[in-house]
Structures are given as C-alpha cells and as structure tokens.
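Tokens in:
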C-alpha cells in the first residue's frame, strides 16, 4: 500500500515512515500542509496520516480539501489534543479516523491497515491463491504450508499480485505501490525483486510474465 505522512515534527515523521516501511508499506513524507496537497494531487495514496497542527496550510484545511477531492485516500488525523470535542471536529472535516498523541505505534499500524482496506474494493484480511497464504497483519507468508522469509519489498510485491486476483500488474504499478518516491523509475529493481521472489516461492512456478504488460499470479 502507499501511505503519505504529513507531520511537521521531522523526527516523528521520519520515525513513523521508517516503521511503516518495515511493515512493507511504500511511504512518502512531507512536513507541511502545502506540500501535502501538492503531493496528493499527483500520487494515489491509500492512507494519509495527517497531523492537525501544520505550518503553511493547517491540517484542518488539508483534511477538508482532500475530502472534497473525493479521492481514494483515507485520512488518519493525528493531534496532541485528544478530548471528545477535538475528535468530533476532526471527523466532521472529513477524516476517517482520529488518533491522539502520544500513541502506541502498533495501534497506528493497525489503524492504517484498517483504513487501507476501506480505500478500494473490499479484500479479505488474509490473501490466498495457488497455495500461497499471505497475512498482511502478522507479516507472514507461506506456500503449501511452508513458511517463507521475504524481504519487505518481496512481501509488498507478492501482496499486490495477490490483491489483483489473477489480473496483470504492471511494473510501473508495482513501483508505485511497493516503493516510494525516491526510487529511480528506470531502475530494474522490479525485475530483480521478481526473480528473488520466484526463487523463494519455489516450484512449480506461479508468477507469469506477460510480455509488454507486467506480471500476474497464474490461476492454476
């Protein structure tokens, strides 16, 4: 999934981003409201983690504008004020969820994942196909009962292929969903990651290359 962190406390923003990347999410970071609106105008995010008290453009105004755009991104608002009135205000602006600071990181991850499930077509909490069983919440994947150890990027790529339910996923789409803005779009990283993922999944092969289009998990 693709997540945007909007937080002016740079250490906190970078810490959240690093933690979510360890959960196999693609994460971009901005530190003010103006950059948040610009970034969300050309990148499709599943979830925006939005601090309420932002410079340049206040978090309330960012939330309101993102909600008015009616894009797919769900908004998790963060704030140091945690009373009921503040939560009601934040939700009335268009936020989908609200988390007061300080928070437990595990709860943040759970809320981001829950919101991401609501950002598109409904998907089951555990993804299964061709004997592959992937649990995003527990970060576990197995094939025919054999536990696999995947890197974060391999896990993210496999999750995207499973979510496509046999549909073709382009290399460009995988770059967008599994890597962040810092990746070179002309890199061969998708091909390299796909090769190691295929090796770890073992025989018989299940990932098909569709020439000129991308990759898909074979139906049988």
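Residues out:
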């Amino acid at each position: 999934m693709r997540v945007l962190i909007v937080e002016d406390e740079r250490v906190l923003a970078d810490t959240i981003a690093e933690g979510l990347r360890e959960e196999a999410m693609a994460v971009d970071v901005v530190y003010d409201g103006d950059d948040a609106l610009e970034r969300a105008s050309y990148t499709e995010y599943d979830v925006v983690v939005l601090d309420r008290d932002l410079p340049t453009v206040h978090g309330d105004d960012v939330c309101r504008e993102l909600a008015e755009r009616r894009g797919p991104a769900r908004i998790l608002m963060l704030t140091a004020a945690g009373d009921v009135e503040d939560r009601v205000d934040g939700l009335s602006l268009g936020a989908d969820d609200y988390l007061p600071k300080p928070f437990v990181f595990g709860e943040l991850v759970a809320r981001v994942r829950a919101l991401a499930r609501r950002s598109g077509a409904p998907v089951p909490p555990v993804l299964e196909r061709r004997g592959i069983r992937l649990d995003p919440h527990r970060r576990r994947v197995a094939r025919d009962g054999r536990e696999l150890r995947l890197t974060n990027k391999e896990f993210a790529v496999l999750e995207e292929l499973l979510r496509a339910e046999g549909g073709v996923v382009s290399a460009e789409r995988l770059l967008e969903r599994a890597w962040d803005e810092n990746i070179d779009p002309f890199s061969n990283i998708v091909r390299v990651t796909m090769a190691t993922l295929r090796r770890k999944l073992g025989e018989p092969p299940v990932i098909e290359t569709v020439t000129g289009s991308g990759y898909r998990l074979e139906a049988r």
